[in-house]
Specification:
The complex is a heterodimer of chains A (about 180) and B (about 190).
Chain A lengths: L2 H15 L2 H23 L4 H17 L9 H21 L23 H7 L2 H12 L4 H8 L3 H19 L7
Helix pairs in contact in A: 1-2, 2-3, 2-4, 3-4, 4-7, 6-8, 7-8
Chain B lengths: L14 H4 L7 H13 L4 E2 L3 E2 L3 H14 L1 H4 L10 E8 L11 H17 L3 E6 L23 E9 L3 H8 L3 H4 L3 E6 L4
Antiparallel strand pairs in B: 1-2, 3-5, 3-6, 4-5
Classes of the chains: A mainly alpha (about 180), B alpha+beta (about 190).
Chain lengths: ~180, ~190
């Protein structure tokens, strides 16, 4: 049974019965991926990433009946996660608390702060960060990313290119050409 | 598009340079399931909705041990200032794992029985989901009100003061399971 067929079977089983067991099968199949993306997007391994995944599943459970399979289930779920993450960015931008070790979407970091790659990714503007995480780390195609993020393929490619350029500059050894 | 050879980010295995991300914590699954149960989005085999059966059983036992049955008999109803403990469940509530409902039932039963022996419990019961709601002017309103937590049960106590009611409420098992309790005084009757 292919992953796609299996996904359809699992979703159908869940929608038919709403049984916890059927939901748990879906949850366990996709949560590792969702959690990984949440951690990469936020550079947070604790509450923020968990909150994003939690809310993703709550929304997914409510919306599965209307899921039309125009994308794969994983792509659809990741799209929900991305949307929730964007809401979170807006809340942070509005002055809510920031995790101590993550500044998602922050402007260019101060020069005296030595960044590692994870910090640098978390500091990218949201669109760049999503492109890097989804394409370079998670291996999604630009077509997938377009469905997940609601942007077109060309935008996804240009954001990825810019994100790489910014990361190279931020991570270049001092004195080296960026 | 392939990354440039000197690109700092490897593809497709980003963990090569970023380090692995730990597995999702086990408590996250419990948290998601608890939220969905609390919202009535999950069932247990047989089609019954999750999230209330254990409290119904606990409250029923508590009611009979603690007051509802005996309160019907004249002279046994505790008198004094009454307080209602309103039991809420939100996303943080930890329901019993499947098969362990009886553990919770026993905790609530024991707590309620102790209050009854001290003459402090009037009654307790599960609150079922709202059957209907009326809005302003008596117009029908959505039955499910937007709320951060759901009211799932109550106990009525007798206690001479808020401090005393709070002290009693602090022992309720609901708090150990990360539920929330609101203490509501009764007005003069």
């Amino acid at each position: 049974m292919s992953d796609a067929t299996s996904d359809r079977a699992l979703v159908a089983a869940f929608l038919a019965t709403r049984e916890e067991r059927a939901f748990r099968d879906l949850y366990r199949r996709y949560t590792p991926r969702l959690f990984r993306v949440a951690v990469r997007l936020t550079n947070d391994r604790g509450g923020v990433a968990e909150d994003l995944v939690h809310e993703t599943w709550v929304r997914a459970a409510a919306g599965l009946a209307g899921f039309g399979w125009r994308a794969s289930l994983g792509t659809w779920l990741t799209g929900i996660l991305i949307n929730r993450a964007r809401e979170q960015y807006r809340e942070w931008a509005g002055g809510a608390r920031l995790p101590a070790d993550a500044r998602p979407g922050a402007a260019e970091p101060p020069l005296d702060v030595r960044l590692d790659l994870a910090q640098a990714i978390a500091a990218l503007p949201a669109g760049y960060r999503e492109a890097i995480v989804l394409h370079d780390i998670e291996g999604y195609t630009h077509e997938d990313i377009a469905m997940i993020t609601g942007r077109d393929v060309g935008t996804s490619k240009s954001q990825l290119s810019r994100a790489r350029r910014v990361l190279r500059r931020w991570l270049a050894p001092e004195g080296s050409p960026a | 598009m392939s990354p440039a050879p000197d690109d700092p980010v490897g593809r497709p295995d980003g963990s090569r340079v970023l380090g692995p991300v730990p597995e999702p914590p086990a408590h996250l699954e419990r948290r998601v399931l608890a939220t969905l149960r609390a919202r009535g989005a999950l069932t247990i085999p047989g089609g019954r909705r999750w999230g209330r059966g254990w409290l119904a059983a606990a409250a029923l036992v508590a009611a009979f041990l603690g007051g509802r049955a005996s309160a019907a008999r004249a002279g046994e109803v505790p008198t004094g200032q009454r307080w209602m403990l309103l039991l809420y469940e939100d996303a943080g509530f930890r329901p019993p794992p499947p098969g362990a409902e009886q553990v919770y039932v026993e905790e609530y039963r024991a707590w309620a029985a102790a209050l009854r022996r001290r003459g402090q419990l009037v009654e307790g019961a599960e609150l079922l989901p709202a059957a209907a709601a009326l809005g302003r002017g008596g117009a029908a309103a959505p039955e499910v009100m937007p709320e951060p937590a759901r009211l799932t049960g109550y106990f009525i106590l007798v206690a001479p003061s808020l401090d005393s009611a709070r002290a009693i409420a602090s022992g309720i098992p609901h708090l150990r399971h990360n539920g929330r309790v609101v203490i509501q005084p009764f007005g003069a009757s």
